[in-house]
Structures are given as structure tokens and as C-alpha cells.
């Protein structure tokens, strides 16, 4: 049976460019044989058929003249939000597969200066929920420096010569051989929670970079709550966490 890379088969079947087809697969918006495709370069039969799903829409949590709080669905790049909400610019970012609260602000405003200074001074409360492999019974604070290499895509690691990073993990419940955790970060290094969880042998489910093979259909990491400058916003857990 003839095979080819999934994004090429999809592109031919639906008259898409290779870039468009790859983007749809990367966003987990393509079904083949009733199952989601996650790897654009996966070899599949050339006669495969596909169903293309509609991307989920971000939900506005709060908006005033200073700040726009969005509940970001997984598989949407943070920078895409600036295109969706004209007149607003990103204050910070979330990984593509991470869902939850993300903030946008008015560019070149006095509030923008104050908000960026709050992030710089580590005066922002950032709480995440994640589901990890293994059973973690006790709370733990991880203080391990992290360095990041950006060559095409970012990848971080524990590095004694890296930037300081602090993550506080608190178990919420143990489900089988998995643990639902609250993760509070006091710094904002690239992939910080993912790298710190891996460093204690409890990688996050669905983590294709730092984790191990599992059946999760997304990275099980959710930005649950954020607070700064008198504002506080939260986003409920997606149904995947139920």
C-alpha cells in the first residue's frame, strides 16, 4: 500500500498548501479514521480520508479600558490572539497546547508599563493545574535553574548556569497512577512547569517534548488563575481534566 507524509496526503485531498495542512494537524484539528492526527510527518496511506474540525474560539473573561482577559483554548498560538482582538497586544504568553487565562493590554499605555514591571518584579500570581504521571503525595517546591535554546523551536533544560526558576507543586488528588497538581510559579521561564515536573520524574501527560508516550490528546496543563495590579482572573478546568 502506497504511503506518504500525513500533511502531504491531507494537502492533496483538500486542496491545501503544505503549510496549511501541517498547521491543521499541529493544532489537532484533523481526524482520519475517527482518530486525531498529531504528527504531520507520520506516514499514512495515500488513500486516507479526513475530517477537518473547526478551531475552538477563545472566550472573553473580562475587558475594560486597561486589560483583556481571555480563556485560551489549547492548540492556539498566543500571538494569534492579537490578530483576533484588534487593538490589544499580548502581555505574556502560554505554550500552544496550554489552555487557560492569558492577558492582553493596550500597547504603549501607562498600564502596560506597570504590568510589565509587575512581571519583571515577580509581583504576579500565576497558578496552573496539571495532570502528571506517577503519584506525588506531598507538596514540593522546586528551585532549579533553567536554560533555553531556541533553534526553530524552544527547548529548555535544568542547567546550573541557567536562570533561576521556582515552582511550587501541591497535590490535589491522585487518580490511579496519576496526580492532579496545583503549580504556582514565582518565575516565568520557558516551559518551566514542564521541565520542573520532568526533573522529579513526574512529567505532564501529553507532553511530547519532556514527557513519555501516553494516550493524552493534549498537554494536560491549564493556566487556572492570574492576579496583578488589583486584578484577578480565573478560567475553569477544560472537560479533558474531568
Task: Tell me about this structure.
- It contains 5 helices and 17 strands.
- It is α+β, with helices and mostly antiparallel strands.
- The chain folds into 2 domains: 3-52, Structural Genomics Hypothetical 15.5 Kd Protein In mrcA-pckA Intergenic Region, Chain A, CATH 3.10.290.10; 59-241, 2-Layer Sandwich (Pseudouridine synthase), CATH 3.30.2350.10.
- A hairpin with a 1-residue loop joins strand 12 and strand 13 (153-158).
- Helix 1 crosses helix 2.
- The protein is globular and about 60 Å long.
- The protein starts with a strand and ends in an 8-residue tail after the last strand.
- The mean pLDDT is 92.
- One of its GO terms (molecular function) is catalytic activity, acting on RNA.
- This is RNA pseudouridylate synthase.
- Residues 90-199 form the Pseudouridine synthase RsuA/RluA-like domain.
Uncertain parts: none
Please count the beta strands (DSSP E, at least 2 residues each): 17
Overall mean pLDDT stands at 92
> How do the SSEs run, as a string of H and E?
EHHEEEEEEHEEHEEEEEEHEE
Radius of gyration: 19 Å
Shape: globular
The helix-and-strand class reads alpha+beta
Domain Pseudouridine synthase RsuA/RluA-like: 90-199
Family: Belongs to the pseudouridine synthase RluA family.
InterPro entries: PsdUridine_synth_cat_dom_sf, PsdUridine_synth_RsuA/RluA, RluA_PseudoU_synthase
Protein name: RNA pseudouridylate synthase
Would you summarize the structure shown here?
The chain is α+β, with helices and mostly antiparallel strands and 242 residues long.
